[in-house]
Structures are given as structure tokens and as C-alpha cells.
Amino acid sequence: MTLSDILYKILIQGGSYWTILKGLGATVQISLFSLLFGTILGAFVCMLRMSKITIFRFCATVYIVILRGSPVLMLLMLMYYGIFARSSLEANTIAIITFSLNVAAHVAELLRASINATDYGQIEAARTLGFGAFQAFRLVTLPQIITIAKPVYQSTVVNLIQWTSVVGYVSITDLTRVINNIASRTMQPMITIIIGMLIYLALAYIVHGLFALSDYIQARKEREAAA
Amino acid sequence: MKKFFAALLLTALFASSSFAAGHKVGMLAKLCMNAADFASNVKYQYFSLENLSAPEFKYYDSINAMQLALSAGEIDEIALPEVVSNYLMAADHDYLINCVVIMRSNPLAFAFGFKSDNEGLRDEFNKALAEIKRDGTLITLQAQFLTPKDSMMEIPAPVHFTKFDGARTIKAAITGDLPPIDFAAPDGKPDGFNVALLAEVARRLKFNVEILNIESGSRAAALSSGRADVVFWFEIYRGLATQPDVPDGVILSEPYYNFDTIYHLKLAR
In Å, how far is B30's CA from the nearest CA of chain A? Predict the structure, then answer.
């Protein structure tokens, strides 16, 4: 078989491209929802982690240590084949729960580091000038947290997309699983894996592009405000 | 300190060179879970003009992993059942037969696996399998799916599952990585000899099938957790009372496909 035959077999024959797109859809769906819920939960865990109450701080620390220190595949297997084995929850939902829990631990630490990097004196100054506690946070601390956290958050998003490649272990046909299935059927692992890698790379660059776009918009807004 | 590192380096070099010596054959972990069991249960005679010594086996999770190891030079040959070898050689003409192993003493077979407390379902499967063998359907399915193809450019025939309204649903876990026995068709649907056989069993026993496509590494977990009611393909040694490769808590159906020939394939350099 020539290279074009092989590529035809991998990408086109029998609507293979559609199966790849469906796999990509599963990967994007799990990543997006996990990111959304993980970020919200992460902010909550961060709040507990920075709380003045010892028990809250302790619980949040334990959560972060366990979730950040254990492989997400093990957690996923434990959730799907253990904790939720008898439940009627779909595999996709269990995967989103698992990845949200994992991302939350990373986001919590990332937010804490960002908050610690801001100057508390600024809050005190804002409060002295008559800002309320929430107002001071929203107008003074939050913009700085976002600027500091953004680059790390971007790599968390890309990491999350890559972590989702293990969902094949819990019966979800994501992009990696589709690529593996095609490699098995065509018996052309090298070319198929390279194609899979290129798709993941494209996803990472889309994420990169979105963050760059938001940076650009923010910079333009700042320029307009200054003018 | 320098001497210590020099000694360490020498030891590492010696270790890697001693590992590199000998003839290495890649084998699917499923084909035989561990070397000790394999050696004690199978008289594996290695016929090759090039190499008369017993090969060293290395185990892989998937055929793709073995293929990559072979092209990287990590192993010299890969061992696969005859039908799978034929499929691989038709898909990629760079693969050649280096030797043929006929397992006379303990031939191999495929069987369905069930959780040990699910004897009822196992017995139903056995009954259906016996019928399928008796009326010649098994031979037809073998001819349809396992006959070597001339061209790999044709799209494999799809497998249809009959729907039974109000009937129970049996969950079956498949891996999709052993063509032409078990694979995913271009449209993502499960296909192959095993899947067709499962569809036939389901049609006769009048149940619906929900297919779980999972990594081979999580098949045992799928069965023990109750996520799957039936798992295929379990490779067994025909004629052995205790099966070395079958995990605890798993019971097997009667074998439905027997094979005694394994090809060792190498890459044309």
C-alpha cells in the first residue's frame, strides 16, 4: 500500500474522519466541563485552604495533597469501577466528575500562589479609601490574580486535555481511543499516532490562541482606558 | 567518587549488553500472562534455521505496541495467532513469516469470560454456543471474518445486533485491538468475528447487547465491578484443567475458537 492508500484508510474510508471528529468531540466535552466545574470547585477549595479556621485549612490541604499526588487514571478507575460501579451515571459524567476533582486541586494551588503574590498592603489602602471588602477584592486583587494566574492556568488547560486521553479505560471513546482503534484496524500505529498527536497539538494551539486573544483584548482595553 | 561512577557506568553497560544478547520475541500479554506459566504448560519448540536457541519473550499490551517495538529494534520478531498474522501481513507487506509454531501439546482457544457468580449466564452462553457449532453457523462466521483478504482496501462488513423490545440488556466489554477477531470499524462500531458471534448468541438467547469499548488493561476491573457481564476474548490452553492466565473470580464459557498455530513475524529489512 502506498502512503496515500494508508492515509485514505486511516482518515477517510468508511467515514473514518467522522469517527475521529466524534472522538475529538468527546475529548473537548470532557475537558470543557471539567475545566468549568474544576475551576469553580478549585476557587472554593482555595478559599478553604486560606481560611482562618484550622479544620477548613486542614481539609483543603488533605484534599490538595491527595488529588495532586495521585495519578488521575487511578482515580478514574476507582470512581468508575468502584465508587460509582452500581450507579446509573454515564461514563462521561463520571469522567467529568473525576477530572473536575483533579483540576480543582491544581486550580486551588494556582489561585493560592497568585493571591500570595499580590500585595496585601493594596487591599489595606483600598479599604482605607472607603472600598468595601468585596469591592477591594474585585477591583484591586482580582485583576492582579488573573494576570498572574493566566499563564499557569493555560498550561493547566492543555494538561487537562492531555490527561483526558486515559478515559478509554472507562469505556469512553475519546480521541485517543479512536486513534488506537484505527491503529489496530489498519495496523499502521506509527502514522496513526502521529496524526493523533497533530490533532492534540492543534487543540493545544487553539487554547494558546484563545489566551493570546484574551491578552490582546485586555491590552487594547487598557490602552483605550489610558487614552 | 569518580571510581564509583565509573563502576556504575560499567555495570550499566554490562547489564544492557547482556539484555541485548539473545533472540527476542514480542508476545501479547493476553496470549500468555507470564513466562513461567507459559514455559511450564506449553512445550514451545522453536524452529528456525537462523537461531536454534530458545527465544526470550517480551510481553506487550497491544499489537501496535509490539509493532513499534519491532520497528525500533527492541525485539526481533512478534508472535501472533495465525489469523491475526494473516491480517497484519495483508495490511502491511513489510511483515514476513520467520517461523511457524504449532502448539501440539496444549493448543490455544478463545472463550467468553464471566464473573464467577454469574454461572447462569455462562450456562446460557454455552447452550447457545453448542447450537451455533452444531448447525454450522460458527463455520460460516469463521469463513466470513477470518479468511485472509487479498485487499485491505475493502471496508469490513458491519455486524448487526437484533433489537428485542423489553428484553434484558447484557453488557459486553470488548477491546477492539485484535483484528480480524475484534476491532472497531471505520464508523467506530464494533466489528469482527467475536462481535459477530456475540450478536449471534444474543439473537438466539433474545437479549439486547450494550457494548463497552475499553482498554484491554481494564477488562478484569470491568467484569469484577459489574460494569460488564461478559468479556471476550480470553485465551485459554485447551485441555488444561486450570487456566494460568485467567484471573480469580472469572469463569469461562466453552471455547468457541480453537487455534494451534502461531506465526513469528519479522520486518523485511
Answer: 15
